[in-house]
Target: Circularly permuted type 2 ATP-grasp protein
Amino acid sequence: MADQPPFDEMYEADGSVREPYRALSQWLEEQPDKALNLMQADAEAIFRKLGITFAVYGSDEGTEKVIPFDVIPRIIAAQEWRKMSKGIEQRVKALNAFLYDIYHRQEILKAGRIPEKLILQNEAFCPEMMGLEPARGVYAHIIGVDIVRVGPDEFYVLEDNLRTPSGVSYMLEDREAMMILAPDLFHRCKVAPVENYPENLRRTLESVAPENSSSSPNIVVLTPGIYNSAYFEHSFLADQMGATLCEGPDLFVDGGKVYMRTTTGPERVDVIYRRIDDEYIDPLAFNPSSMLGVPGLFDAYRAGNVTLVNAPGTGIADDKAVYTYVPEIIEFYLGEKAILQNVPTYNCTDEEERNWVLANIADLVVKEVHGSGGYGMMVGPTSSKAMHNEFRKKIEARPDNYIVQPTLALSTCPTYVNSGIAPRHVDLRPYVLIGDEVRITPGGLTRVALKKGSLVVNSSQGGGTKDTWVLED
Model:
Protein backbone atom coordinates (compact mmCIF):
# COMPACT_ATOMS: atom_id res chain seq x y z
CA MET A 1 0.00 0.00 0.00
CA ALA A 2 2.89 2.36 0.70
CA ASP A 3 4.24 2.03 -2.87
CA GLN A 4 1.21 3.60 -4.55
CA PRO A 5 1.01 7.43 -4.76
CA PRO A 6 -1.48 8.93 -2.32
CA PHE A 7 -5.02 9.42 -3.59
CA ASP A 8 -5.72 13.12 -4.16
CA GLU A 9 -9.30 13.80 -3.09
CA MET A 10 -9.54 16.99 -5.20
CA TYR A 11 -7.71 16.11 -8.42
CA GLU A 12 -7.92 13.20 -10.84
CA ALA A 13 -4.66 11.70 -12.14
CA ASP A 14 -4.99 13.83 -15.32
CA GLY A 15 -5.20 17.04 -13.27
CA SER A 16 -8.94 17.59 -13.70
CA VAL A 17 -10.98 18.48 -10.63
CA ARG A 18 -13.14 15.72 -9.13
CA GLU A 19 -16.87 16.46 -9.14
CA PRO A 20 -17.35 17.10 -5.37
CA TYR A 21 -14.60 19.74 -5.40
CA ARG A 22 -15.63 21.75 -8.48
CA ALA A 23 -17.42 24.56 -6.64
CA LEU A 24 -14.52 24.83 -4.16
CA SER A 25 -11.95 24.88 -6.99
CA GLN A 26 -13.77 27.73 -8.72
CA TRP A 27 -14.09 29.62 -5.44
CA LEU A 28 -10.36 29.26 -4.73
CA GLU A 29 -9.51 30.62 -8.20
CA GLU A 30 -11.65 33.68 -7.51
CA GLN A 31 -9.93 34.54 -4.23
CA PRO A 32 -7.65 37.60 -4.43
CA ASP A 33 -4.03 37.41 -3.29
CA LYS A 34 -3.66 37.16 0.50
CA ALA A 35 -7.40 36.40 0.97
CA LEU A 36 -6.69 32.94 2.39
CA ASN A 37 -3.92 34.36 4.55
CA LEU A 38 -6.38 36.87 6.04
CA MET A 39 -8.98 34.11 6.52
CA GLN A 40 -6.39 32.01 8.33
CA ALA A 41 -5.55 34.91 10.66
CA ASP A 42 -9.26 35.55 11.29
CA ALA A 43 -9.81 31.86 12.06
CA GLU A 44 -7.02 31.88 14.64
CA ALA A 45 -8.50 35.02 16.23
CA ILE A 46 -11.94 33.35 16.42
CA PHE A 47 -10.50 30.22 18.03
CA ARG A 48 -8.37 32.22 20.47
CA LYS A 49 -11.36 34.34 21.51
CA LEU A 50 -13.47 31.23 22.09
CA GLY A 51 -10.66 29.58 24.04
CA ILE A 52 -10.47 26.55 21.76
CA THR A 53 -7.25 25.07 23.03
CA PHE A 54 -5.66 21.72 23.72
CA ALA A 55 -2.88 20.82 26.13
CA VAL A 56 0.54 19.61 25.04
CA TYR A 57 2.37 18.41 28.11
CA GLY A 58 6.13 18.88 28.08
CA SER A 59 6.00 21.58 25.40
CA ASP A 60 8.50 24.43 25.70
CA GLU A 61 5.85 26.87 24.42
CA GLY A 62 3.52 26.28 27.37
CA THR A 63 0.83 23.66 27.65
CA GLU A 64 -2.17 25.49 26.14
CA LYS A 65 -2.24 25.93 22.35
CA VAL A 66 -4.82 27.04 19.83
CA ILE A 67 -5.49 24.02 17.65
CA PRO A 68 -4.27 24.66 14.08
CA PHE A 69 -7.21 25.06 11.68
CA ASP A 70 -7.14 24.95 7.90
CA VAL A 71 -9.59 27.20 6.05
CA ILE A 72 -9.96 24.92 3.00
CA PRO A 73 -12.76 22.44 3.77
CA ARG A 74 -12.60 18.75 2.98
CA ILE A 75 -15.49 17.64 0.77
CA ILE A 76 -17.19 14.23 0.70
CA ALA A 77 -19.76 13.32 -1.95
CA ALA A 78 -23.20 12.11 -0.85
CA GLN A 79 -22.71 8.59 -2.25
CA GLU A 80 -19.29 8.28 -0.60
CA TRP A 81 -20.82 9.25 2.75
CA ARG A 82 -23.69 6.77 2.34
CA LYS A 83 -21.24 3.88 2.06
CA MET A 84 -19.18 5.14 4.99
CA SER A 85 -22.15 5.74 7.31
CA LYS A 86 -23.64 2.32 6.49
CA GLY A 87 -20.31 0.69 7.37
CA ILE A 88 -19.98 2.76 10.56
CA GLU A 89 -23.47 1.80 11.74
CA GLN A 90 -22.75 -1.89 11.09
CA ARG A 91 -19.51 -1.63 13.05
CA VAL A 92 -20.89 0.10 16.15
CA LYS A 93 -23.86 -2.27 16.39
CA ALA A 94 -21.50 -5.27 16.25
CA LEU A 95 -19.16 -3.77 18.86
CA ASN A 96 -22.04 -3.16 21.28
CA ALA A 97 -23.26 -6.74 20.73
CA PHE A 98 -19.70 -7.92 21.42
CA LEU A 99 -19.57 -5.95 24.69
CA TYR A 100 -22.90 -7.37 25.84
CA ASP A 101 -21.69 -10.89 25.08
CA ILE A 102 -18.28 -10.44 26.73
CA TYR A 103 -19.95 -9.30 29.95
CA HIS A 104 -22.61 -12.04 29.85
CA ARG A 105 -22.44 -15.47 28.18
CA GLN A 106 -19.12 -14.98 26.31
CA GLU A 107 -20.36 -17.00 23.33
CA ILE A 108 -17.68 -15.63 21.02
CA LEU A 109 -14.97 -16.97 23.36
CA LYS A 110 -16.69 -20.36 23.72
CA ALA A 111 -16.88 -20.57 19.92
CA GLY A 112 -13.11 -19.99 19.74
CA ARG A 113 -13.50 -16.99 17.43
CA ILE A 114 -11.37 -14.78 19.71
CA PRO A 115 -8.67 -16.09 22.08
CA GLU A 116 -9.99 -16.09 25.65
CA LYS A 117 -6.67 -14.81 27.00
CA LEU A 118 -6.89 -11.72 24.78
CA ILE A 119 -10.09 -10.66 26.55
CA LEU A 120 -10.01 -12.02 30.10
CA GLN A 121 -6.36 -11.09 30.78
CA ASN A 122 -6.65 -7.71 29.08
CA GLU A 123 -6.25 -4.67 31.35
CA ALA A 124 -9.22 -3.02 29.59
CA PHE A 125 -11.56 -5.87 30.59
CA CYS A 126 -13.67 -4.92 33.62
CA PRO A 127 -14.77 -8.02 35.62
CA GLU A 128 -17.00 -5.80 37.79
CA MET A 129 -19.28 -5.35 34.73
CA MET A 130 -20.11 -9.08 34.48
CA GLY A 131 -23.86 -9.68 34.40
CA LEU A 132 -24.75 -5.98 34.54
CA GLU A 133 -27.71 -4.95 32.34
CA PRO A 134 -27.09 -1.45 30.96
CA ALA A 135 -30.02 0.69 29.81
CA ARG A 136 -31.22 -0.48 26.36
CA GLY A 137 -28.32 -2.96 26.37
CA VAL A 138 -25.99 -0.19 25.18
CA TYR A 139 -22.42 0.02 26.50
CA ALA A 140 -20.81 2.50 24.10
CA HIS A 141 -23.21 5.40 23.51
CA ILE A 142 -20.64 7.78 22.02
CA ILE A 143 -18.14 6.38 19.53
CA GLY A 144 -15.52 7.93 17.26
CA VAL A 145 -14.44 5.73 14.34
CA ASP A 146 -11.14 6.74 12.71
CA ILE A 147 -11.28 6.24 8.94
CA VAL A 148 -8.60 6.68 6.30
CA ARG A 149 -9.03 6.79 2.55
CA VAL A 150 -6.55 5.33 0.08
CA GLY A 151 -8.51 5.38 -3.19
CA PRO A 152 -11.68 6.58 -4.96
CA ASP A 153 -13.78 3.91 -3.23
CA GLU A 154 -11.30 2.54 -0.67
CA PHE A 155 -11.91 3.37 2.97
CA TYR A 156 -10.27 1.61 5.91
CA VAL A 157 -10.99 1.81 9.63
CA LEU A 158 -7.80 2.72 11.43
CA GLU A 159 -9.19 2.33 14.94
CA ASP A 160 -12.35 2.49 17.04
CA ASN A 161 -12.69 4.88 20.00
CA LEU A 162 -15.25 3.64 22.54
CA ARG A 163 -13.93 4.92 25.85
CA THR A 164 -14.16 8.72 25.83
CA PRO A 165 -13.71 9.81 22.18
CA SER A 166 -12.72 13.47 21.97
CA GLY A 167 -12.63 16.15 19.29
CA VAL A 168 -16.34 16.69 18.59
CA SER A 169 -16.15 20.28 19.86
CA TYR A 170 -13.54 21.00 17.16
CA MET A 171 -15.93 19.60 14.54
CA LEU A 172 -18.65 22.00 15.71
CA GLU A 173 -16.39 25.03 16.07
CA ASP A 174 -14.70 24.37 12.71
CA ARG A 175 -18.13 24.55 11.07
CA GLU A 176 -19.09 27.73 12.91
CA ALA A 177 -15.79 29.36 11.92
CA MET A 178 -16.24 28.43 8.25
CA MET A 179 -19.79 29.83 8.19
CA ILE A 180 -18.36 33.14 9.41
CA LEU A 181 -15.31 33.10 7.13
CA ALA A 182 -16.75 31.79 3.85
CA PRO A 183 -20.56 32.26 3.72
CA ASP A 184 -20.43 32.69 -0.07
CA LEU A 185 -18.87 29.24 -0.47
CA PHE A 186 -21.69 27.67 1.58
CA HIS A 187 -24.22 29.22 -0.82
CA ARG A 188 -22.59 27.29 -3.70
CA CYS A 189 -22.56 23.92 -1.93
CA LYS A 190 -25.42 21.99 -0.35
CA VAL A 191 -23.67 20.97 2.88
CA ALA A 192 -25.23 18.58 5.42
CA PRO A 193 -25.51 20.24 8.86
CA VAL A 194 -23.52 19.19 11.93
CA GLU A 195 -24.80 21.79 14.39
CA ASN A 196 -27.58 19.54 15.69
CA TYR A 197 -24.99 17.25 17.37
CA PRO A 198 -25.50 18.71 20.91
CA GLU A 199 -29.29 18.27 20.59
CA ASN A 200 -28.81 14.69 19.35
CA LEU A 201 -26.35 14.04 22.18
CA ARG A 202 -28.93 15.19 24.72
CA ARG A 203 -31.66 13.05 23.12
CA THR A 204 -29.37 10.03 23.21
CA LEU A 205 -28.45 10.57 26.86
CA GLU A 206 -32.09 11.09 27.86
CA SER A 207 -33.06 7.87 26.05
CA VAL A 208 -30.76 5.77 28.27
CA ALA A 209 -31.81 7.31 31.58
CA PRO A 210 -32.83 4.82 34.30
CA GLU A 211 -36.48 3.71 34.25
CA ASN A 212 -37.06 5.28 37.66
CA SER A 213 -35.89 8.74 36.56
CA SER A 214 -38.15 11.72 35.86
CA SER A 215 -39.64 12.51 32.45
CA SER A 216 -36.93 15.15 32.07
CA PRO A 217 -33.74 13.33 33.17
CA ASN A 218 -31.03 15.35 34.90
CA ILE A 219 -27.78 15.04 32.90
CA VAL A 220 -24.30 16.03 34.04
CA VAL A 221 -20.89 15.99 32.34
CA LEU A 222 -18.25 14.66 34.74
CA THR A 223 -14.84 16.17 34.06
CA PRO A 224 -11.44 15.61 35.76
CA GLY A 225 -11.13 19.42 35.89
CA ILE A 226 -9.51 22.39 34.24
CA TYR A 227 -6.09 20.76 33.90
CA ASN A 228 -7.38 18.02 31.60
CA SER A 229 -6.31 18.40 27.95
CA ALA A 230 -9.94 18.20 26.74
CA TYR A 231 -11.48 20.47 29.40
CA PHE A 232 -12.61 22.98 26.76
CA GLU A 233 -14.65 20.24 25.13
CA HIS A 234 -16.19 19.08 28.42
CA SER A 235 -17.42 22.60 29.26
CA PHE A 236 -18.44 23.29 25.65
CA LEU A 237 -20.63 20.17 25.35
CA ALA A 238 -22.22 20.70 28.76
CA ASP A 239 -23.10 24.26 27.78
CA GLN A 240 -24.36 23.31 24.31
CA MET A 241 -26.76 20.61 25.50
CA GLY A 242 -27.91 22.40 28.64
CA ALA A 243 -26.27 19.99 31.08
CA THR A 244 -24.29 20.77 34.24
CA LEU A 245 -20.51 20.47 34.21
CA CYS A 246 -19.38 18.70 37.41
CA GLU A 247 -16.23 17.49 39.07
CA GLY A 248 -16.19 14.50 41.43
CA PRO A 249 -16.66 16.49 44.68
CA ASP A 250 -19.82 18.10 43.22
CA LEU A 251 -21.58 14.72 43.35
CA PHE A 252 -22.37 12.29 46.15
CA VAL A 253 -24.21 8.99 46.60
CA ASP A 254 -26.96 8.55 49.17
CA GLY A 255 -29.30 5.57 49.44
CA GLY A 256 -27.91 4.08 46.24
CA LYS A 257 -28.74 7.21 44.21
CA VAL A 258 -26.49 9.97 42.88
CA TYR A 259 -27.04 13.60 43.81
CA MET A 260 -25.48 16.89 42.78
CA ARG A 261 -24.71 19.56 45.37
CA THR A 262 -26.43 22.84 44.50
CA THR A 263 -27.07 26.14 46.30
CA THR A 264 -30.71 25.12 46.74
CA GLY A 265 -29.97 21.62 48.03
CA PRO A 266 -29.24 18.18 46.55
CA GLU A 267 -30.54 17.36 43.03
CA ARG A 268 -30.94 13.80 41.79
CA VAL A 269 -28.69 12.90 38.82
CA ASP A 270 -29.93 10.41 36.22
CA VAL A 271 -27.25 10.30 33.52
CA ILE A 272 -23.52 10.97 33.82
CA TYR A 273 -21.58 11.63 30.62
CA ARG A 274 -18.23 10.90 32.16
CA ARG A 275 -14.93 12.08 30.71
CA ILE A 276 -12.94 10.26 33.39
CA ASP A 277 -11.19 6.94 32.80
CA ASP A 278 -12.66 3.76 34.33
CA GLU A 279 -9.96 3.51 36.96
CA TYR A 280 -10.84 6.86 38.52
CA ILE A 281 -14.67 6.98 38.51
CA ASP A 282 -15.17 5.44 41.95
CA PRO A 283 -12.44 5.02 44.60
CA LEU A 284 -14.52 2.37 46.41
CA ALA A 285 -14.79 0.12 43.32
CA PHE A 286 -11.57 0.83 41.41
CA ASN A 287 -8.52 2.95 42.26
CA PRO A 288 -8.77 3.80 46.00
CA SER A 289 -6.46 6.80 45.61
CA SER A 290 -8.66 8.52 43.00
CA MET A 291 -9.72 12.05 43.92
CA LEU A 292 -11.56 12.53 40.60
CA GLY A 293 -14.48 10.15 41.00
CA VAL A 294 -17.49 9.70 43.27
CA PRO A 295 -17.42 7.16 46.15
CA GLY A 296 -20.26 4.66 45.71
CA LEU A 297 -20.98 5.66 42.09
CA PHE A 298 -20.44 2.18 40.69
CA ASP A 299 -22.86 0.58 43.17
CA ALA A 300 -25.50 3.17 42.18
CA TYR A 301 -24.83 2.27 38.55
CA ARG A 302 -25.10 -1.48 39.20
CA ALA A 303 -28.40 -0.88 41.00
CA GLY A 304 -29.77 0.83 37.89
CA ASN A 305 -30.20 4.20 39.59
CA VAL A 306 -27.87 6.14 37.29
CA THR A 307 -26.52 5.60 33.76
CA LEU A 308 -22.81 6.01 33.01
CA VAL A 309 -21.96 7.07 29.47
CA ASN A 310 -19.91 5.35 28.16
CA ALA A 311 -20.20 2.28 30.38
CA PRO A 312 -17.10 1.12 32.30
CA GLY A 313 -15.29 -1.69 30.50
CA THR A 314 -16.03 -0.48 26.95
CA GLY A 315 -12.29 -0.12 26.39
CA ILE A 316 -12.02 -3.85 25.69
CA ALA A 317 -13.78 -3.21 22.35
CA ASP A 318 -11.32 -0.54 21.18
CA ASP A 319 -8.20 -2.37 22.33
CA LYS A 320 -5.81 -2.40 19.37
CA ALA A 321 -5.29 -6.15 19.64
CA VAL A 322 -9.08 -6.74 19.63
CA TYR A 323 -9.31 -4.39 16.61
CA THR A 324 -7.79 -7.11 14.44
CA TYR A 325 -10.85 -9.30 15.16
CA VAL A 326 -13.56 -6.72 14.37
CA PRO A 327 -14.41 -8.20 10.92
CA GLU A 328 -14.83 -11.52 12.74
CA ILE A 329 -16.97 -9.81 15.40
CA ILE A 330 -19.25 -8.30 12.73
CA GLU A 331 -19.72 -11.69 11.08
CA PHE A 332 -20.33 -13.48 14.40
CA TYR A 333 -23.03 -11.14 15.72
CA LEU A 334 -24.63 -9.75 12.55
CA GLY A 335 -24.01 -12.56 10.06
CA GLU A 336 -22.65 -10.00 7.57
CA LYS A 337 -19.33 -9.22 5.93
CA ALA A 338 -17.70 -5.97 7.09
CA ILE A 339 -18.57 -3.05 4.80
CA LEU A 340 -15.54 -1.07 5.98
CA GLN A 341 -12.33 -3.07 6.05
CA ASN A 342 -9.64 -3.00 8.72
CA VAL A 343 -6.12 -1.98 7.81
CA PRO A 344 -4.18 -5.27 7.31
CA THR A 345 -2.49 -6.01 10.64
CA TYR A 346 0.38 -8.32 11.57
CA ASN A 347 0.22 -10.41 14.72
CA CYS A 348 3.57 -10.21 16.53
CA THR A 349 2.76 -13.15 18.81
CA ASP A 350 2.96 -15.40 15.73
CA GLU A 351 6.66 -16.26 15.30
CA GLU A 352 6.61 -16.28 11.51
CA GLU A 353 4.80 -12.93 11.28
CA ARG A 354 7.01 -11.44 14.00
CA ASN A 355 10.20 -12.44 12.16
CA TRP A 356 8.87 -10.86 8.97
CA VAL A 357 7.96 -7.66 10.87
CA LEU A 358 11.41 -7.42 12.48
CA ALA A 359 13.07 -7.80 9.08
CA ASN A 360 10.86 -5.17 7.41
CA ILE A 361 10.28 -2.74 10.27
CA ALA A 362 11.62 0.25 8.29
CA ASP A 363 8.56 0.06 6.01
CA LEU A 364 5.92 -0.52 8.70
CA VAL A 365 3.88 1.32 11.33
CA VAL A 366 4.21 -0.05 14.88
CA LYS A 367 1.56 0.83 17.50
CA GLU A 368 1.48 0.13 21.20
CA VAL A 369 -1.73 -1.77 22.01
CA HIS A 370 -2.80 0.73 24.68
CA GLY A 371 -1.17 3.82 23.14
CA SER A 372 -3.19 6.83 21.96
CA GLY A 373 -2.80 10.37 20.68
CA GLY A 374 0.09 9.42 18.40
CA TYR A 375 2.24 8.32 21.35
CA GLY A 376 3.81 4.86 21.67
CA MET A 377 4.00 4.43 17.90
CA MET A 378 6.60 4.47 15.16
CA VAL A 379 6.15 5.25 11.45
CA GLY A 380 8.99 3.24 9.88
CA PRO A 381 9.72 5.25 6.71
CA THR A 382 10.03 8.54 8.64
CA SER A 383 11.95 7.14 11.63
CA SER A 384 15.69 6.72 12.22
CA LYS A 385 17.61 3.44 12.26
CA ALA A 386 18.06 3.91 16.01
CA MET A 387 14.27 4.11 16.38
CA HIS A 388 13.86 0.97 14.22
CA ASN A 389 16.27 -0.91 16.50
CA GLU A 390 14.54 0.39 19.63
CA PHE A 391 11.15 -0.88 18.44
CA ARG A 392 12.65 -4.22 17.33
CA LYS A 393 13.78 -4.72 20.93
CA LYS A 394 10.38 -3.68 22.27
CA ILE A 395 8.55 -6.14 20.00
CA GLU A 396 10.94 -8.98 20.89
CA ALA A 397 10.46 -8.27 24.61
CA ARG A 398 6.65 -7.84 24.49
CA PRO A 399 5.22 -9.12 21.17
CA ASP A 400 1.69 -9.02 22.60
CA ASN A 401 2.02 -5.30 23.35
CA TYR A 402 2.26 -4.16 19.71
CA ILE A 403 0.33 -4.34 16.47
CA VAL A 404 2.05 -3.68 13.16
CA GLN A 405 0.52 -2.39 9.93
CA PRO A 406 1.72 -1.41 6.46
CA THR A 407 2.34 2.29 5.86
CA LEU A 408 -0.84 3.45 4.19
CA ALA A 409 -0.73 6.07 1.46
CA LEU A 410 -3.36 8.23 3.21
CA SER A 411 -5.39 10.41 0.88
CA THR A 412 -4.52 14.10 0.59
CA CYS A 413 -6.63 17.25 0.52
CA PRO A 414 -5.68 20.77 -0.55
CA THR A 415 -4.45 22.62 2.53
CA TYR A 416 -3.36 26.22 3.06
CA VAL A 417 0.23 26.22 4.33
CA ASN A 418 3.03 28.81 4.46
CA SER A 419 4.01 28.15 0.84
CA GLY A 420 0.42 28.39 -0.44
CA ILE A 421 -2.05 25.61 -1.24
CA ALA A 422 -0.51 22.13 -1.08
CA PRO A 423 -1.73 18.54 -0.58
CA ARG A 424 -1.57 17.22 2.98
CA HIS A 425 -2.53 13.81 4.39
CA VAL A 426 -5.85 13.54 6.25
CA ASP A 427 -7.97 11.11 8.24
CA LEU A 428 -11.57 11.35 9.44
CA ARG A 429 -13.27 10.75 12.78
CA PRO A 430 -17.04 10.50 12.36
CA TYR A 431 -19.04 10.59 15.61
CA VAL A 432 -21.82 8.13 16.40
CA LEU A 433 -24.48 8.36 19.11
CA ILE A 434 -26.31 5.19 20.21
CA GLY A 435 -29.35 5.07 22.49
CA ASP A 436 -32.93 4.74 21.31
CA GLU A 437 -31.48 4.87 17.78
CA VAL A 438 -28.17 5.25 15.96
CA ARG A 439 -27.37 8.86 15.08
CA ILE A 440 -24.33 9.58 12.89
CA THR A 441 -23.25 13.19 12.29
CA PRO A 442 -22.56 13.76 8.57
CA GLY A 443 -18.81 14.03 8.16
CA GLY A 444 -17.06 14.40 11.47
CA LEU A 445 -13.64 15.76 12.34
CA THR A 446 -11.01 15.79 9.60
CA ARG A 447 -7.52 15.85 11.05
CA VAL A 448 -4.70 16.98 8.79
CA ALA A 449 -0.95 16.40 9.00
CA LEU A 450 0.36 19.93 8.42
CA LYS A 451 3.99 18.89 7.98
CA LYS A 452 4.87 17.94 4.40
CA GLY A 453 4.97 14.16 3.98
CA SER A 454 3.84 13.50 7.56
CA LEU A 455 1.22 10.81 8.19
CA VAL A 456 0.65 11.70 11.87
CA VAL A 457 -2.49 13.85 12.14
CA ASN A 458 -2.83 14.13 15.95
CA SER A 459 -2.91 17.71 17.27
CA SER A 460 -0.46 16.66 19.99
CA GLN A 461 1.97 15.69 17.21
CA GLY A 462 1.69 18.83 15.05
CA GLY A 463 -1.55 18.10 13.21
CA GLY A 464 -4.53 20.39 12.67
CA THR A 465 -8.20 20.18 11.74
CA LYS A 466 -10.47 20.99 8.78
CA ASP A 467 -14.20 21.48 8.41
CA THR A 468 -15.69 18.39 6.74
CA TRP A 469 -18.45 19.01 4.20
CA VAL A 470 -20.71 16.12 3.27
CA LEU A 471 -22.65 17.20 0.19
CA GLU A 472 -26.35 16.45 0.06
CA ASP A 473 -27.98 15.09 -3.10
Q: What stands out?
A: The longest strand covers residues 142-151.
